[in-house]
């Protein structure tokens, strides 16, 4: 399955969609990390606040003075952020319990020590751990607290355990702050935000790109039609952005100029054909007065050679000029009729059984191309074997011979005009060098191609490959 679209519109919309998704994914990660950082800082501040309160009440009963209340209020304001569960009461122990699953956090220990020192609470040792609430021995040893934790489903939730020992004190003060519940609806908000951004961005791009791609599509269709017919029609109306309008105007001017050149060429070739064929016809009449039969035959062959070369040149010039739409044709019957023409003249040509294949073609031109390939095969390869196959939806007209083939480095040259494999200018041996060129032009006129390959054993294979209907 092809995921990458072919059109400009599809590719830009897909790129915009991917960009939105990537940007929102990065935003989600950053928001999550920021929320985690705020949560960790808030939990640490709550633990520090509880420890400061305990440190300010050495007899655990005296009320805080106004100054101490102010310090506690400042620290409480620092804990603004996520709503945190109420911390458990302070526990005094000789030595904090360390469990196998505890995860000590040196960075938090340093931060907690700084917080306490800033509040005037000197400490000699600090220990900050993370553990599951259900594993904490303080909770496990208090039935009512354990039942409350179980009823609220908090056994698997994490808890921050902060233990400090003040300078000169023998006991540790241990504060426990459960991890806050993550706020609900955040992901739904981000998802809704992503959908809104996507709809706004994609819809805006869609209407903007449609304004660009619609005239480009019309221009592409017009160019393809002109390439196939070589006939200019009414100029395209300039539409779209200024750049596209300038492109359409340039295409209209180019198309008109090319069409004018083609018309001039056709008029010129028609005049040349008329001016040359008229004296050739007169020469053909005059040679009848030559008494020497041998010389008369040579003259007639020379005139015929010039006439055929002229016909090939005019035919090559007319290939691609629209003479009507292609007609659905039984290619098997067409190939059989061409092979029969050669068989009637006693040429060593035979056809291999082929399936019935129908394609829309210009019959006269395709017949001409097939004749040229068979003539070359008979001339250079002694005999021709003609077949018709269908591969991957393409119809292939194939002509094989048993001749010497063509050197691999000369195959491309042989498709150019006036290039021959035989050095002489005698049509009986070498021809004018236009047969393969004309066959290639006819194949390309049908949207196909002419392919020449040397056979493994001996001979040359010429294929006209027509596209699927």
UniProtKB/TrEMBL annotation:
Domain of life assignment: Bacteria
CDD domains, per the entry: HATPase, HisKA
Ranges of residues in domain HAMP: 210-263
Membrane topology per record: Multi-pass membrane protein
Keywords linked to the UniProt accession: ATP-binding, Cell inner membrane, Cell membrane, Coiled coil, Kinase, Membrane, Nucleotide-binding, Phosphoprotein, Transferase, Transmembrane, Transmembrane helix, Two-component regulatory system
Domain Histidine kinase intervals: 271-469
Keyword Transferase appears in the UniProt entry: yes
Chief place where the protein resides: membrane
Stretches of the chain forming a coiled coil according to its record: 244-300
Protein location: Cell inner membrane
TM helices/strands, residue ranges: 190-209
EC number(s) stated in the UniProt entry for this protein: 2.7.13.3
Keyword Signal recorded: no
Catalyses which reaction(s): ATP + protein L-histidine = ADP + protein N-phospho-L-histidine
Protein name: histidine kinase
Pfam families in UniProt: HATPase_c
Matching SMART domains: HATPase_c, HisKA
Record region (Disordered): 59-80
One example GO MF annotation: ATP binding
């Amino acid at each position: 399955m092809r995921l990458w679209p072919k059109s400009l519109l599809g590719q830009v919309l897909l790129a915009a969609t991917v960009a939105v998704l990537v940007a929102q994914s990065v935003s989600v990660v950053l928001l999550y990390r920021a929320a985690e950082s705020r949560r960790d800082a808030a939990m640490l501040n709550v633990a520090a606040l509880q420890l400061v309160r305990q440190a300010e009440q050495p007899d655990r009963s005296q009320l805080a003075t106004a100054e101490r209340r102010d310090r506690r209020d400042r620290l409480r304001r620092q804990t603004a952020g996520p709503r945190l569960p109420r911390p458990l009461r302070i526990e005094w122990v000789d030595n904090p319990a360390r469990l196998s699953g505890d995860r000590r956090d040196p960075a938090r220990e340093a931060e907690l020590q700084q917080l306490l020192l800033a509040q005037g609470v000197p400490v000699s040792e600090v220990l900050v751990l993370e553990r599951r609430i259900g594993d904490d021995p303080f909770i496990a040893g208090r039935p009512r607290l354990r039942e409350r934790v179980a009823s609220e489903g908090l056994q698997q939730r994490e808890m921050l355990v902060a233990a400090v020992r003040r300078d000169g004190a023998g006991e540790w003060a241990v504060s426990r702050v459960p991890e806050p519940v993550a706020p609900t609806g955040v992901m739904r908000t981000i998802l809704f935000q992503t959908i809104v951004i996507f709809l706004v961005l994609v819809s805006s791009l869609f209407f903007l790109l449609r304004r660009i791609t619609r005239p480009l599509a019309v221009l592409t269709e017009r160019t393809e039609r002109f390439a196939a017919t070589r006939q200019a029609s009414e100029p395209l109306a300039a539409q779209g952005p200024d750049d596209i309008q300038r492109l359409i105007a340039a295409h209209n001017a180019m198309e008109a100029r090319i069409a004018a050149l083609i018309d001039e060429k056709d008029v010129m070739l028609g005049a040349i054909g008329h001016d040359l064929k008229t004296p050739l016809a007169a020469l053909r009449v005059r040679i009848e007065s030559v008494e020497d039969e041998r010389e008369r035959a040579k003259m007639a062959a020379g005139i015929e050679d010039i006439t055929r070369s002229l016909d090939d040149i005019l035919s090559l010039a007319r290939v691609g000029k629209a003479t009507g739409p292609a007609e659905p044709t039984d290619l098997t019957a067409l190939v059989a009729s061409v092979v029969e023409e050669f068989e009637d003249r006693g040429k060593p040509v035979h056809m291999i059984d082929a399936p019935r294949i129908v394609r829309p073609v210009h019959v006269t031109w395709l017949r001409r191309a097939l004749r040229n390939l068979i003539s070359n095969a008979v001339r250079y390869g002694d005999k021709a074997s003609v077949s018709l196959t269908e591969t991957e939806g393409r119809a292939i007209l194939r002509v094989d011979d048993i001749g010497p083939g063509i050197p691999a480095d000369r195959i491309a040259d042989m498709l150019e005009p006036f290039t021959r494999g035989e050095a002489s200018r005698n049509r009986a041996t070498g021809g004018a060098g236009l047969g393969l060129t004309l066959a290639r032009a006819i194949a390309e006129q049908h949207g196909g191609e002419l392919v020449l390959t040397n056979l493994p054993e001996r001979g040359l294979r010429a294929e006209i490959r027509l596209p699927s209907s």
